[in-house]
Amino acid sequence: MRLQAQRAKGSLTATRLYLVRHGRVAEGHTDRYHGHNDIGLSPQGVRQFEDLAAQLAATPLQGVYSSDLTRTIKGAALISRGRDLKPQAIPEFREVNFGSWEGLTFAEIMAQYPAELEERFQDLANFRIPGGESLKDVKARALPKLQELLTRHANEAFLLVAHAGLNRVILSEAMGLDLSRLFRLDQNYGCLNIIDYFPDLAVVRLLNGGVNGAAAG
Question: Is 21 contained in some domain?
Answer without folding.
Answer: yes
